[in-house]
Amino acid sequence: MYALLFSEPALDRDVVRVATREGIFSSPLVRACARGDREAIRGLLIGFWPFVQAFERAIDQRVGHLPLRPLVERFGQSRVKAFFGEAREAVREMKDEEGSHALLWIAGAEELGIDLNAGDYPVFGAVEELIRASTSADPVEFFSWLAGVEYLAEELSAYLCHAPAFTSAFPSRRWLWGEAHTAHDHHGPSHLEIDEDLARAYHPSTDPAVVAGTLAANIGRCVQLFDIAANEIAEQMAPQLQAA
């Protein structure tokens, strides 16, 4: 089981969650999804699919390739030897879980008659930026970006899974992808806690304020790109929202 390297979080997670929630609630696309707008829901599922798919692959590329030297220099070889196996296993579990989440995203789309594997769907500019950022070679940026995606997924899921008009749009009356991100049944640290812990471990500074500033900036940029992407998707796939 992964044991966190730091006993205290680098960020005030309640503050980050509020900021993430504000970004989600301000999105015309997401609000329309909550109202049960079929075109908006279709836009959400198709427009963000390239990122959902790429996110799993990005984590897969990290499995077995976490740099060891920065951690040895900081924490010592004996401590890192035990930790490193746990870190690799934690990242591998994230990859496996994101793979299952991608299948749930596909299943939700299929309920609405959308075949994400067969369609030639566009990749919007901000979605491409989200994908590029998730493949960063810098472990600080990579893991803080993963944390940002976790914040987004949890807050988006909490909002839409509690919107009856949204869930009623699915024949099953459930959005399984969202439910997977609102169920907190991890034994040990959550993926969010592990992401922030690893980002902090790889950060060259030991000043908590400096580390917190870096993580907050990366997470904030992730949330901002999600908002921009949602607006781009709305403009192209649910233009009726522009007049709402």
From TrEMBL:
InterPro entries: Haem_Oase-like_multi-hlx. This is Thiaminase-2/PQQC domain-containing protein. It comes from Acetobacter musti.
